[in-house]
Every structure is written in C-alpha cells, then in structure tokens.
Amino acid sequence: MTILFADLQGFTAFSERHTPTEVLELLNDYWAKTVPVVLGKHGGMIERFAGDAIMVIFNAAADQPDHALRAARAGVDLQHAAREVAAGRTDCPRFGVGINSGPAIVGNVGTAEQRSFTAIGDTTNLASRLQGHAESGQVVIGEATLRAISDDVRVEPLGELRVRGRSEPVAAYVLIGLG
Questions:
Q1: What is the pTM of this model?
Q2: In percent, how much of the chain has pLDDT > 70?
C-alpha cells in the first residue's frame, strides 16, 4: 500500500497570530479543497485528521494496483488545491507532504471503549518521517514509491536522510512532476 501524510508547515505560528475561529475557518477551507482531491479524484482513504495534518491510505479498502501513482498524483494535486486556498492570503501555512509505499497491515487498534482504523508498519512510519523532511509546498517520496512510478515521474534527489527511529539512512526524493 501507499501512505500519504500532509501537514501544514507554519501552522503553529499562524495559530499564534490568529483567533481560534480564524484558524478553524482556514482549516475547513483547506479540507474543503483537498479532501475531494484525495478521496474522489484519486481514491485514497482518509485514515485521520489530526488538526492541521492528514493521513491517507491507498490500496486498503479496494484493490488499487497503481496505488503509488495515485498517491503521488494526490500529493501534487493537494499542493495545487492548497495554493488556491492560500491565494490572496498573506500568511497562510502550506503543506509538506510525505509519501511511502510498501507493506503494512490495516485494521482497528485501541480498546473496547475506543478503536481507530489505521495502517501499521514501517511503511507508515517512514511516510510520516518523509513528511517531516518536506518543506512547505514540497512532496517528498521514498525509494519504493519512486520505483513503483519511475516511468511517470521527475524527481530531485534529497540524498540519504537520517530519520528518527531508523538505524540506516533512507533515500528520498522531491517530486517535481508526473507524466
């Protein structure tokens, strides 16, 4: 499967300068533009919203042999939608996106009182770490995602990144464009 994490870079600073109502309005504007992109247009499944962040799973609810390409396209389109929301606003945060492909298990985690559906595994963890290395407006993909879409992609290597929790560095790439 392929996991996409997107987080608004600069959100904390934005929240400090604006009222809670203005912050909520901005978040709802972002989600109104970006959710149809990942759900309807590219067939992702939103695993969760966490304030200014979103986790999307591809190839979990339905068979999607092109899940890596779907996620990459969703990441690019999510950035386009976010630019529309930010147009005319001077201090809007922008998304940093991380995408990784590989094995994971999906299911419910929690207790009898509260459970959440999620994707668990190193693939998910690395997608989150790649998102942490994405600058505002960037989509960063892992090696497995690049291999899965290599015929349809233009990237800029970030080199070997040291990410929290991994003993070895990982190759990462900024997604520049798709064919």
A1: 0.93
A2: 100
